Amino acid sequence: MQVQNWLFEVNNKWIIIIFNIWYLLGVPIISTNFPLIQNVDLQENIIFTCDGTPISTNVNVTWYKNAVRLLNQSNRIQLIENKLIIHSIEWDDQGMYQCFLTNDVGEDTRSTWLKIKSNIFIIFQLKKFEFWFRWSPNSIC
Questions:
Q1: What is the phi/psi pair of residue 24, to 5°?
Q2: Partners of 13 in the beta sheet?
Q3: Could you give the domains of the chain?
Q4: Minimal CB count within 10 Å: which of 11, 16, 87, 122?
């Protein structure tokens, strides 16, 4: 971000004015707090929100997962206004999610990693026998 400084003399006192030029021009600035890592359980629902500052006008919100644009293609993953909603988290939902807030003046972006914190269930098949193996990352010392 570009910061602009102005120095004025008023009544023999120097006054410095500092402001972000992008804010003045109306470049969209995402105001939502994005955690670096979002840990969720399997089958959990999650909502990511991409809000801009009040000065961010006429903005478009675009969501990406692992650098691939997300579209409203299912009832499980929905894009509603500035929100990305994922219902019933699955293993394949892990990855990096990015929000792009754009208008005619510029853009801003935020990202977060979605990680599954649930136990892992693995099915082994050996000859005619099938058994389950349960592993939890928290159980390893």
A1: -65, -40
A2: 10
A3: 27-139 (2.60.40.10)
A4: 11
Asked whether the beta carbons of 118 and 137 are under 8 A apart, the reply is: no
What residues have CB less than 8 Å from 47, skipping those under 6 apart? 83, 84, 85, 86
* 91 closest CA partner among 116, 73, 112, 74: 116
d(CA 88, CA 85): 10
CB atoms within 10 A of CB 95: 13
* Residues with pLDDT less than 70, the chain: 1-27, 55-56, 118-141
The per-type count for the chain, helices as H runs and strands as E runs, is: 1, 12
